[in-house]
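To: structure subgroup
Subject: Chain for Friday's discussion

All,

I'm putting the inputs and outputs inline so they're searchable in the archive.
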Amino acid sequence: MTAPAAPRALGAAAVRAAAGALAAAGLGWTLWHGIAEPGNALAFGVLVAVGELARGGTPPGEREPAPLAAAGTLAYALLGDSGGQPTTHGVLQTVAVVVAGTLAGAVPHIARGRGPELDHLARRVLTAGFAAVCFQPLYNSGVWERAVGDGPRFALLLLLLTLLTALCDVVLAALTLHARTRRPYGPLLRDELRALLGVGSAVRASGAVTTLAVAVAGLWALPALCGPLLLAQRSLRRYAAARTTCRQTVASLARATEIAGYTPPGHAHRVAVLSREVGRDLGLSEPDLTVVEYAALMHDIGQLSLVDPVPDGATALLPAAEQRRLALLGGAVVRRTGVPAAVAVVVERQADPYREQPLPARIVRTVNAYDDLCGERASKALGALEQLRLGTARDHHPAVVESLARVLSRGGVAGPGPG
């Protein structure tokens, strides 16, 4: 293991070790002292288990593979009353119920060889403990009641604690991704914060609403809320499957130039993966990274109009007018595939001077030129980078070239993304 990789691995191991120690403490304490309010514990344990069980079929790498289980976890951690009666389950029982529910729901997946990711499980345990520590001791001692009372101010308190728990989860998610993918921590944290505004915020809000509903209506509120959450989870899974199918379709279309002998084997895939890494290094959002990936996969599709293939597919040697024609033809094909129009714009702008290009087009152009120069031959990487730096007067943006150099210095393609 290299010196830079060791701290990253230790960071991920520390997160898992902390989660394991907290889980063991919660289970041990609960077994020793018994379960407070067994009905509440059973109901929320079943809710977490059902949410984990419904995770089946979710593509790996999703930021929140089990939204219902995450919402149930947060709801139990912030549960103060149940049907108007105060609860006393505390922090360690919260962790024990979450762990037991998660493991029970994961048994069928484990039997099929698709158990929960350890990083997701560790995050769930730690965020459950964090939320419970922030709420349970102060609620049971009456501090929160004296400070905010009931009504709207208590609801605002729950939303505040929900936000703090979400930020804790974001930090942990970025840390584990940094350890697994070797990407810079800053851009990963930025990606997780952006994702928090989407599904993450809905999951946390559902947890807070569940807590308030159970406090008033009791445990009968859980089945009333489970139905909509399960439907939302099913919709998310179908959307993720459609997104995966779209990516596979684009990748298959991109291979047409390779099959026809216009580009070297693997060229489009290499450019797409490396372009996505450069885009992430430059701080692009997840939707922009998808645009970069799709445009990189299909940037050579216009070459199918050529009678004779360009040697090695290197269109940079063609006259500027011919490059422009191929780019426009490629964009016209892309517009018929159903992908976002921004993808076609990136393909159409490949032959423009970089100062006139949007950032995604600059990234694809530079990474494509790099792969044209060295392909899979790592020994030529330094020479290719030097040629790109010499072309920063007109052909390549200096910031993109230096970002490519940073990505390559980290080993190029680092691993799978979050989704």
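Points worth raising on Friday:
Confidence is low (pLDDT under 50) at residues 1-7, 414-419.
Residues 221-254 form the longest helix (34 residues).

D.
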